[in-house]
Amino acid sequence: MATAIKTAYETYLVDLSGLDDSLNKAWVDRVASVTTNRLAQASVRQAAALLSAQEHGVGVLRDDHVGVVMTGPSSAALADCQDEYHFYLVDDNSGSPDPFISRGDFAGSAQMVLQNGRWLVDVFTTTHVTCVY
User: Which of 71, 84, 110, 128: CA 20 to 30 A from 64?
Assistant: First the structure.
């Protein structure tokens, strides 16, 4: 079961990494396939904010040292260390990294739910708390 949870989460991270590059129906469908409606809508708003700020992501957001704890028969909490050295935002015009965004390995978490036999990301958060592992 933990493998299916991690796979859904990792798929979401990959899709989230490309949200500003491909904000179209195909991207929304991919994100919606691994998230609840609530998180899919929040992800679209996040993509729109990046487009409006004229920024885009470089690299792929990925996790290191993932831990999964079952919180019920159809829910789980996931904690990870998100690699934000290799994924970061840059200005569309200059190509320079956003100076207001810290880069590093930061603690993150997700709430996962089982719906219709599939694990979905329901809540996703990242922090600026440095991971130590």
Answer: 71
Q: Tell me which long-range contacts 68-77 makes (C-beta under 8 A, separation of at least 24).
A: 68/2, 68/5, 68/6, 68/112, 70/1, 73/114, 74/113, 74/114, 74/115, 75/111, 75/112, 75/113, 75/114, 76/5, 76/111, 76/112, 76/119, 77/109, 77/110, 77/111, 77/112
Q: Find out whether 92 and 55 touch, Cβ atoms under 8 Å.
A: yes
Both tokens of residue 87? 């994924």
Rounded CA separation 70/126 (Å): 20
CATH number belonging to the domain at 2-130, selected among 3.30.930.10, 3.40.190.10, 1.10.486.10, 3.10.450.50 = 3.10.450.50
What is the tens place of the pLDDT at every residue in 15-67? Answer: 887 765 555 667 778 888 999 999 998 888 888 888 888 888 888 888 878 89
Greater confidence, 2 or 69?
Answer: 69
